Amino acid sequence: MIRFIDEYRNRFSVEFICKTLKNNRAGGFITSRGYRQSKARGLSARRLRDAVLVDRIRTVHRDNYGVYGVRKMWHALRRDGIDIGREQTARLMRLAGVSGKGRSPLTTRKANVPDLRPDLVEREFKAQGPNKLWVADITYVRTKKGFVYAAFITDVYSRRIVGWALSDSIRTETLPLQALNQAIVCAEETTGLIHHSDHGSQYVSVVYNQRLAQHGIAASTGTVGDSYDNALAENVNGSYKNELIHARRWDDVVEVEIATFEWVSWWNETRLHQSLEYRTPVEVETEFWKQNPPQEIIEIKANA
Predict the structure, then answer these.
(1) What is the DSSP string of 61-115?
(2) Residues 154 and 286 reside in one and the same domain
(3) Are 149 and 169 in contact, with CB atoms under 8 Å apart?
(4) CA separation (Å) from 36 to 5, 84, 204, 236?
(5) pLDDT at 27 > cutoff 50
(6) Quick check: pTM over 0.70?
(7) Which domain covers residue 168, as residue numbers?
(8) Any idea what the Cα angle at residue 193 is, between residues 284 and 149, rounded to 5°?
(9) What is the rounded end-to-end Cα distance, in angstroms, of the chain?
(10) A GO BP term, please (predicted)?
(11) Percent of the chain predicted with pLDDT > 90
């Protein structure tokens, strides 16, 4: 109430504000005399402490990507040596105007049919060349208009993102299948290639596995609930979030799609990868094909 009167006292008198509130609302509102006495006393010790804690809460919230809700904020403050209760934390978070992000959307939905795909990788994320082993996964982006989902397919040998798609729907046809189609079009050869993913229903779907089979690609998956069995794909998702998504707030799917296109181009052509001895994926693939030209190129040179 004090804050409300402070905000409008220059437009209306203190007496007018207090009288109007009293006449139009239930009892309990401050009088003009009470307002002036309160201002004369200054802030109480509790309000001073609240003001300090509100600033601290805003800092902790900002430094943790704005995802902490009451429970995590409470634990964070106590770890900092601040003696505070959970309910008090909730009250001060409301004063600070911050809140948690809530639960994250599910990107891996259990299929309604048995997953009969074998594990052809067994955590050995190594390949002898491009288009031998791909890993695939789905992640999400929070925007002002809702969630956007991103599907990536990465070549294990070169770490090049060979296919990606973005959509506000997680359906197979609108997301991972689009990424797969892009990867297939860009590949020199797919016969004998292994495609490794988690147990999400999109990757178990009939239409997705039919497309793999049409191009001679073997489907593979790891242990249920074990992210290490798709660790390389998870690493790509993590880099995408840390390097691009967490840097700002996003408006909608179009804005994210444009930025993702630029990020993928940078990832493939410019970004130095420690796992590639600080080379780019494009450099690694170019060097490989220079040393191991496709068979049709060898035949053309032989017949020249």
Answers:
(1) HHHTTT---HHHHHHHHHHTT----HHHHHHHHHHHT-----PPPPS--B-SS--
(2) yes
(3) yes
(4) 11, 31, 70, 60
(5) no
(6) no
(7) 133-295
(8) 80
(9) 90
(10) DNA integration
(11) 44
